[in-house]
Amino acid sequence: ENSDLIANIISVVALFPFKNSTAFEHGQTLDFGRPLIPNSELEAFYFAATPFIKYPDLFRCTNTAKTILHLIPISRKEMEFKLKYGIDAFLDLMGKHGVEPFMDLRRKSCI
Fold first, then answer.
1. What are the pLDDT digits (tens) for 88-108?
2. Quick one: which of 77, 86, 6 has its CA closest to 43?
3. Global confidence as pTM
4. E strands, 37-91, where?
5. Is 101:1 a contact under the CB 8 Å cutoff?
6. Is the separation of the CB atoms in 97 and 79 below 8 Å?
7. What CA–CA distance (Å, rounded) separates 22 from 34?
């Protein structure tokens, strides 16, 4: 059930740039506009550069890829914090609270 939900969320987010003639970049946020799942404090996403991809290997497979981004669910308050104080302060906040860069839809907000 959780993997189907995550796949659905990723497909919605992946379609967004095509529908809106835009692209996502490291450090951007996307407001989902509602809790990602019922009773979740998380309702936005942070796009992070991923340490898990070996870029030379990726670019051998495709000539159009520019980067791969890691999708991290965040709360509205965390998103507002990032917008107000910047990426470095936001990442420090996440680190201080031990937030792992995974699709944890049930974690509590750091703020």
1. 999 999 999 999 877 888 999
2. 77
3. 0.83
4. 42-49, 69-75
5. no
6. no
7. 22
